[in-house]
Design brief:
Blueprint: H1 7-22, H2 37-44, H3 54-58, H4 85-109, E1 116-123, H5 129-135, E2 145-149, H6 155-158, H7 164-167, E3 176-180, H8 189-192, H9 198-217, E4 220-228, H10 231-243, H11 254-260, H12 262-275, E5 283-287, H13 291-308, H14 320-328
Parallel strand pairs: 1-3, 1-4, 2-3, 4-5
Helix pairs in contact: 4-13
The chain binds adenosine monophosphate and magnesium ion.
Length: 330
C-alpha cells in the first residue's frame, strides 16, 4: 500500500525548510525526513516548525455557524503546493503507522482502560468519504481499523432506536473506528426527506450530544470530519463519473435528485454543526474540493490526535532476561 518515498519533491521541501529557518518563518506542519522512528513523535512537540496544529486550524469553534464562511477549496496549513502533496502525505505514513501500532498494543494490553478512537466522516455525495478511507486511513495496517459504511437502515434496524445500529459498530480498544456516514444521517437525510416527523428528529440533536458525551466519558476520542465540497465541484465529480465507464458503478441516478435538495442539505448540515459541536466532541471542517488536500488533512489530523495520546509501548509483564534464556535453550 505504501510507495517508496519520492526523492525529488523532498529536495524541494528541504530547501523550503531551510529557507523557513533562515527567515525564522514557521510552517504549520513539520517536514521530517530520515529521522529514526522511535524519536519522531517525541521530538515533534519540540519541533520549532510547528506553531499551530492542523486540528486547531480546522476545528469548528463552538457556537453559531455560517456555512458560507468555509472555503471548500482552501488548503489551510498545507506546507507546500499541489505537486508536493503525494510526498508530504506519504511522509506521514511511517509515523501514523507507528502510532497506530502503539495504540493497538495499548488496546491489547490494557483492554479496559485504554482510549478508543472513532473517526466520523460526513459530507455530501461525492465529497470523498471513500477516498479518505482509501488514501488517508489506508496508510495504517488494515488490521488496526474497523470501518463501517452506514446505508439506509434495514427493516430490522428501523425497528430499533436509531443509535442501536451505531452502538454495535463502535470500535473496540486498540482499533481505530471509521464511520462512513453515521448517526448524523438521522438528522440529515432523515430531516431533508421527512423520514420521521419534525417533532422526532428535532429531539435528536440533544440526544446525540448526550450520547457522544457518554462515549467521550467512556474514553473514546471522537474525530468528527465534515468533508466540505462546493456545489460546482460536486457537479464536476458527478459528470466525471459519467464520462468514465470504470466509474459508472459509483454513479447513482438518485444522487441527482439529492443534488436538487442541496439547499436543504446545507440547512441540515448547518443545524448539525451548530447544535452538535461541543468542546468534547468537536467538528473539524475539512475543505474537500481538492482531493489531495482533503486526504492529507485527515491523515495529519489523525496523526496529531494519536500523538496527543502520548502512547508508550506496553511494558513486558514477564521477565525479559529469563525469557531470553528460555528461548536460547530451545
Ligand atoms: P452511499 O454512502 O453513497 O453508499 O449511500 C448510502 C445511502 O444511505 C445514502 O443515500 C444515505 O443517505 C443513506 N442512509 C444512511 N443512513 C441513513 C439513515 N439513517 N436513514 C436513511 N438513509 C440513510
Ligand atoms: Mg453515494
Amino acid at each position: 500500500m505504501r510507495a517508496e518515498p519520492v526523492e525529488a519533491p523532498f529536495d524541494k521541501l528541504r530547501a523550503m525548510r531551510s529557507e523557513l529557518r533562515a527567515h525564522k518563518v514557521h510552517a504549520h506542519v513539520s517536514i521530517r525526513h530520515n529521522q529514526p522512528m522511535a524519536t519522531i513523535h517525541k521530538d515533534d512537540k519540540a519541533s520549532p516548525l510547528i506553531t499551530k496544529p492542523l486540528g486547531e486550524l480546522l476545528r469548528l469553534p463552538v457556537g453559531q455557524v455560517d456555512m458560507t464562511a468555509f472555503d471548500p477549496a482552501a488548503t489551510s496549513g498545507f506546507p507546500g503546493d499541489k505537486q508536493d502533496a503525494p510526498a508530504i502525505t506519504e511522509e506521514l505514513a511511517p509515523e501514523l503507522s507507528d502510532l497506530q501500532e502503539r495504540f493497538y498494543a495499548a488496546g491489547r494490553v490494557k483492554e479496559t482502560t485504554s482510549e478508543k478512537i472513532l473517526v466520523v466522516l460526513q459530507g455530501m455525495d461525492t465529497s470523498g468519504k471513500g477516498g479518505v478511507i482509501r488514501h488517508a486511513i489506508g496508510m495504517v495496517d488494515p488490521q488496526g481499523v474497523k470501518i463501517k459504511a452506514f446505508k439506509a437502515p434495514t427493516e430490522t434496524e428501523r425497528a430499533q432506536h436509531y443509535l442501536w445500529r451505531i452502538e454495535r459498530e463502535l470500535p473496540p480498544p486498540g482499533l481505530i473506528g471509521i464511520f462512513d456516514r453515521s448517526h448524523y444521517e438521522d438528522v440529515l437525510v432523515v430531516r431533508v426527506h421527512n423520514l420521521v416527523e419534525k417533532s422526532v428528529w428535532s429531539q435528536r440533536y440533544d440526544e446525540i450530544n448526550a450520547w457522544e458525551d457518554s462515549l467521550v466519558e467512556g474514553g473514546t476520542m471522537l474525530i468528527k470530519c465534515f468533508l466540505n465540497i462546493s456545489a460546482t465541484e460536486q457537479k464536476e465529480r458527478l459528470m466525471a463519473r459519467l464520462d468514465d465507464p470504470t466509474k459508472h458503478w459509483k454513479y447513482n441516478p438518485g444522487d441527482v435528485d439529492e443534488r436538487a435538495k442541496w439547499p436543504a442539505y446545507v440547512e441540515a448540515y448547518q443545524a448539525v454543526l451548530e447544535r452538535c459541536n461541543t468542546e468534547r466532541a468537536p467538528w473539524y471542517i475539512i475543505p474537500s474540493d481538492r482531493k489531495w488536500y482533503r486526504n492529507w488533512a485527515v491523515a495529519q489530523l489523525l496523526t496529531e490526535q494519536l500523538r496527543a495520546l502520548d502512547l508508550e509501548w506496553p511494558e513486558a509483564d514477564f521477565d525479559v532476561e529469563e525469557e531470553k534464556a528460555r528461548v536460547a535453550a530451545i
